[in-house]
Amino acid sequence: MARLYTPTDSKPVTPQDGSKFTLEEVYDMLDCTTIEMIGLQDGIIMLIDEDAIMRQSPLNNAATHIAQRSLLGNVLVCEWRQFS
Question: Over its length of 84 residues, how does the chain's per-residue pLDDT go in tens digits?
């Protein structure tokens, strides 16, 4: 199941069509216009705002813990097959 991590909390999310997130959906959830993909294990990916540093987005502690690197702003964690 996909999960959206914000700097203050997290919640499960579902693609509008029930199977795959569109780029527009991800832009909206992350509040950005450019994304970066981070591959984790077992087909899991993180989608992050590529410009989070320039935008001075706050640290996302939960996502940082998962990725083992500092991440800022909103972060979507989902299976590779859930992103088109």
Answer: 899 999 999 999 999 999 999 999 999 999 999 999 999 999 999 999 999 999 999 999 999 999 999 999 999 999 999 997
pTM here is: 0.96
- The domain segmentation of the chain, as residue ranges, is 2-82
For CA atoms 21, 25, 27, 30, the dihedral sign is: negative
The conformation of residue 58, written as its DSSP 8-state character, comes to: P
DSSP state of 8: S
| Burial class (CB within 10 angstroms; exposed 0-12, middle 13-18, buried 19+) of 42 | exposed
